[in-house]
Design a protein that fits this description.
The protein is of the alpha+beta class. It has 9 helices and 7 strands, in the order βββααββββααααααα. The protein has a 7-stranded mixed sheet with strand order 2-1-3-7-6-5-4, sandwiched between helices. The longest helix has 66 residues, at 266-331. The radius of gyration is 35 Å and the shape is rod-shaped. Mean pLDDT is 83; it is low at 1-22.
């Protein structure tokens, strides 16, 4: 997802590689704009309407419907799920607003993405704004997009940014195969099932981040680089984006449980508790991973500091070995004439003076190396080489 402040609010479902600072901004209207104004992306996908009408006995599915064709399904005893894939057709969206009698502000929140997840009660309709995430298959990261649910007495209208992918396949399969109790309940249970699927979709994404953090822990300790620091920073930002997407949903579920709605039956209220628990679990996992990422930053700085200390230690050992050798070479490099005085370097006239000087320098160097080896300093150098 990416928000372009200079033109339109958002392009649909961008991968996390393109996440910038704009990701953390919600949609906002331009100053002085008329309430209910629809702002549609120029490259938004065309809207396609898919209708699934079911009861306990049968289920029917229709595609490529017009908004007017959905009107006959709104007042039936069966449950009608009107799924709108794509937000790029303004005429379709306006037609849905007329057929479903949507308030202009509802249609604005649905189309002008991203909105903060929330629940709004309009009496005969309940509007739920959620943020759906899905893991990418071939590369790291995730897709994120807004899903809007409009709950009526016998129908549920859902609007998605991206028509190619969502996390509702298990719900569709349960409806088609009549598994569980979904076809025994009304549209409120369907809304719960979809919302629960949205929240459960966070767990596969978080599993990937758990594995990535485990890999980074090894990398930070063994061979930290500047790329490691960039990875840690990117993980922290993406986890923050996930937290901003799920935290308001927990509050929305809590408000829906606290403020009773005539569109939510007491039986479904019980199931909302399970949905709330899942949201709390997601938030706890995200908070844990963010703390681990912050600790990785501290470990990275410690590893870099330790690595620098080992390098300085090696340079100190080398300098310590050559300091006495340099001293000897400096002393005998002075130009004093031994013929002028017996105190002016008589060693210069020795027959074996030069070999003795070299042997003395070698003995001092070897003695220092032996001393450092006995102290165990070279073991840390070998570990540094292996790293």
């Amino acid at each position: 997802m990416q928000i372009d402040r200079h033109s339109q609010p958002q392009r649909p479902a961008k991968p996390t590689e393109e996440i910038e600072e704009d990701l953390f901004d919600y949609f906002y209207d331009q100053a002085g704009s008329v309430p209910g104004t629809l702002t549609i992306e120029a490259d938004a996908q065309p809207s396609q309407i898919v209708l699934i009408d079911y009861n306990e006995a049968k289920v029917t599915r229709q595609v490529n419907l017009t908004p007017e064709a959905c009107a006959s399904y709104l007042d039936t005893d069966s449950v009608s799920w009107v799924d709108v894939l794509g937000l790029g057709s303004e005429d379709v969206l306006q037609g849905l607003g007329v057929v479903f009698k949507l308030h202009p502000l509802v249609l604005e929140d649905v189309v002008n993405v991203p909105q903060r997840p929330k629940v709004e009660d309009y009496g005969d309709q309940l509007v739920i704004i959620t943020q759906m995430v899905m893991p990418k298959k071939k590369t790291d990261g995730f897709w994120i997009e807004q899903v809007s649910l409009v709950l009526g007495k016998h129908y549920l209208l859902t609007l998605q940014e991206e028509p190619e992918r969502d996390c509702f396949k298990p719900v569709r399969r349960r409806i088609r195969q009549n598994k569980g109790i979904i076809r025994k309940f009304g549209a409120d249970y369907l809304a719960y099932a979809l919302w629960d699927a949205v929240i459960d979709g966070y767990f596969p994404v978080l599993e990937e981040y758990g594995d990535l953090i485990d890999e980074l822990e090894d990398e930070v300790v063994i061979n930290p680089t500047h790329k490691t620091l960039s990875k840690i920073y990117q993980i922290k930002r993406e986890l923050l984006a996930l937290r901003r997407a799920i935290w308001p949903q927990r509050d929305a579920i809590s408000s829906l449980m606290r403020d009773k709605s005539s569109l939510i039956s007491p039986e479904v209220q019980v199931y909302l508790r399970d949905c709330y628990d899942h949201a709390v679990q997601v938030i706890d996992i995200i908070s844990t991973y963010r703390e681990l990422a912050s600790s990785l930053m501290d470990v990275y700085l410690s590893s870099v500091s330790n690595k620098m200390n080992e390098v300085m230690k090696l340079l100190t050992v080398i300098s310590t070995i050559f300091i006495p050798l340099t001293f000897i070479a400096g002393v005998y490099g002075m130009n004093f004439n031994p013929q002028a005085s017996p105190w002016n370097m008589p060693e210069l006239n020795w027959y074996w003076g030069y070999p003795v000087c070299l042997l003395a320098m070698m003995a001092i160097a070897l003695g220092l190396v032996y001393f450092f080896w006995r102290r165990g300093w070279f073991e840390s150098f070998s570990k540094l080489k292996d790293d």
